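Give me the fold.
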Amino acid sequence: MDIEAKLKEGNLIFQEKMEGKSLLNERLIKGQNPFAIVVTCSDSRVIPEEIFSVSLGELFVIRSAGNVINEGELASIEYGIHHLHIDYVLVLAHTLCGAVHAAIHDEKGMYLAPILSKIKEVTSINKDERQTSIDNAIKQVEYIKNKFPDYKGTIEAGLYDIATNSVLFIDK
């Protein structure tokens, strides 16, 4: 299969779909005004716009393996809260996460080390992948709160269950 051809074909389909949505196109051309930041995993099965049934431009999505937050993700969060004035941040973990699995099973990778080390900080508590995903999301929420202590918006964690397509919003 020619991957570039598949991507081009998909873009043509998307263009056709957007043709009848001139109001949405006009809004997107004028700029972005997302109502939430969603920090989530790079996993191709986790698509926040689909999971929450929102349109283009409504979410400011930041992706990182294991939804781990490092400097690049912090910079994006800072942009979202300070320049786009977003009052809600969700760290969205998910079930069946490869990064969580890798951390629990002590897998190695030259570039994965910084991500896996952050997840490993919560794996010592338990070896259950679902619970580790939840604990890691809560840890990332605390990290954001520590980095942006004056932020008045809401910062919370959630877990997307790939098997049921439901999101559990985690009260802490």
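The CA atoms of residues 55 and 123 lie 35 Å apart.
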